[in-house]
Design brief:
171 residues, Aminopeptidase, binds coenzyme A, five-stranded mixed beta sheet, 5 helices
Length: 171
Amino acid sequence: MEPEFEEEKLRIRELMIDDLPEVFHIGEEVFTADYSQSLYRTWDEYEITTLFNSDNELCLVAEAGEKILGFALGTTVEKHNSPWKYGYLVWLGVRKDTQKEEVGKRLFNEIKRRMKEQGVRMIIIDTSADNLPAISFFEKMGFRDTQEHVFMSLNLSRRVKKRSGKRKAKA
Ligand SMILES: CC(C)(COP(=O)(O)OP(=O)(O)OC[C@H]1O[C@@H](n2cnc3c(N)ncnc32)[C@H](O)[C@@H]1OP(=O)(O)O)[C@@H](O)C(=O)NCCC(=O)NCCS
């Protein structure tokens, strides 16, 4: 697909405080309730501000002219008992009307470069099993070794009906 913006004008840069509302709204557009339903994390303003405060170098936006087209928010994780440093790409989102125009790829390549510079040896992402576009995207970016992970939920607001009386003994 022909990019709607001139590719050379697409700039990847660090997120700045003034970008927060625009990034938040792009996230609202792409991480819908449907998206978050089966995921343990939800898109909200704290997601951006927490990562922005802790890992500014891994919070990136893609910009063409004055408009932000997408963002990548990540962090690094050091596991107990592991000498490896992991990069965790927490959120990657591209405006719907500019998807499939290599914005995601450019964001990913830059966050990957930065993570590598920080000593990361493996990048991790997670997404719902039914988010096939994202899975396809990450496979194109070289991700392999998909691991199945089960999330379960227990709804505490639902009343559990108590059985009345004792069970009758079978004759
Ligand atoms: C996933 C997402 C970030 C991809 O961004 P994008 O800018 O549209 O992707 P790109 O144009 O850079 O595509 C890079 C490659 O992935 C492939 N790809 C992208 N979207 C795809 C889709 N919907 N179906 C199949 N392949 C896809 C492209 O074909 C391209 O392959 P190529 O290099 O062989 O041409 C974007 O679709 C998005 O924001 N999705 C909603 C949010 C989300 O699910 N985020 C990921 C989990 S946090």
